[in-house]
């Protein structure tokens, strides 16, 4: 046990220490990553293609492991050989993958959202309440009996978020949540994500979206944390951004955008 706590004695929502990982072909994807998230924080994980972002995310619930270092979720170590611990970790860490169709496979929206909690043993009214709560959180209650694949892409992404929320995770990890969304769907999803009572880690190449949602950002490059700080300051540092192949949209001014959001 690492025993990292805040002043109130509460463990961090996420604590990663010295995490290393190489794929079987020998490619080193993580070279000693340290990252701590406080409960309720919203943090963007930025970095160029191939930086190791997905590899890091796949360590948070034990899908990848074995390279060295430690991961703890609210003080509980992620130990892949301990099946009971991994079941609890997978309940605590909900990952929404980039393609919603990877997470939707049941005949109706409600059945997709019920799938996870039903696997936890929930039944009847308790299960229905979970489904209602998760669909309401993403504004999709009226679509509960629809076939997921008849929904728009933006609606399918929201249902994918609901399938994870139905597990009442402590940490919600989102891989490129704004990709392929039109401006209205993008804004609606941001409004939903902002109100969720979870710790949020968002992997994104959409820097304005990171600024909109996440007060803090972390830049991962070549398997190492290259910067960790206030999103506005990181995005405003042109040399830092250029040095890690991160590009703001033409004419986008992070300081002005942050000021207009929080005047
Ligand atoms: N299954 C795999 N086998 C071998 N190497 C891999 C595998 N998956 C990823 N890698 C390599 O590990 C490194 C990190 O990849 P990863 O997918 O974690 O990066 P990423 O930051 O998520 O990139 P992107 O922004 O493109 O999604 C890259 O060099 C990649 O080529």
UniProtKB/TrEMBL annotation:
SMART domains: AAA. GO terms for molecular function: ATP binding; ATP hydrolysis activity; ATPase-coupled transmembrane transporter activity. One of its GO terms (cellular component) is ATP-binding cassette (ABC) transporter complex. GO terms for biological process: cobalt ion transport. It is found in: Cell membrane. Keywords: ATP-binding, Cell membrane, Membrane, Nucleotide-binding, Translocase, Transport. It is a peripheral membrane protein. Pfam families: ABC_tran (PF00005). Residues 14-247 form the ABC transporter domain. Probably part of an ABC transporter complex. Responsible for energy coupling to the transport system. Part of an ABC transporter complex. Responsible for energy coupling to the transport system. NCBIfam families: cbiO. Belongs to the ABC transporter superfamily. This is ABC transporter ATP-binding protein. The lineage of its organism: Bacteria, Bacillati, Actinomycetota, Actinomycetes, Micromonosporales.
């Amino acid at each position: 046990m690492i025993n990292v706590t805040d002043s109130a004695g509460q463990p961090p929502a996420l604590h990663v220490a010295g995490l290393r990982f190489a794929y079987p072909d020998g490619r080193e994807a993580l070279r000693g990553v340290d990252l701590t998230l406080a409960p309720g924080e919203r943090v963007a994980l930025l970095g160029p293609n191939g930086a190791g972002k997905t590899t890091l995310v796949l360590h948070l619930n034990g899908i990848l492991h074995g390279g060295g270092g430690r991961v703890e979720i609210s003080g509980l170590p992620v130990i892949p050989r301990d099946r009971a611990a991994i079941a609890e970790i997978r309940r605590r860490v909900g990952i929404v993958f980039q393609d919603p169709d990877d997470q939707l496979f049941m005949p109706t929206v409600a059945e997709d959202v019920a799938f996870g909690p039903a696997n936890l043993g929930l039944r009847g009214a308790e299960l229905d309440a979970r489904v209602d709560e998760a669909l309401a959180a993403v504004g999709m209650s009226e679509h509960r009996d629809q076939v997921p694949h008849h929904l728009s892409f933006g609606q399918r992404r929201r249902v994918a978020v609901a399938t994870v929320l139905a597990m009442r995770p402590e940490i919600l990890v989102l891989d490129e949540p704004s990709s392929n969304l039109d401006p209205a769907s993008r804004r609606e999803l941001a409004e939903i994500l902002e109100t969720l009572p979870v710790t949020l880690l968002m992997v994104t190449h959409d820097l304005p979206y990171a600024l909109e949602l996440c007060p803090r950002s972390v830049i991962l490059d070549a398997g190492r944390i290259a910067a960790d700080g206030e999103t506005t300051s990181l995005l405003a540092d042109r040399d830092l951004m250029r040095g890690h192949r991160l590009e703001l949209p033409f004419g986008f001014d992070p300081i002005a955008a942050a000021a207009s959001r929080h005047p």
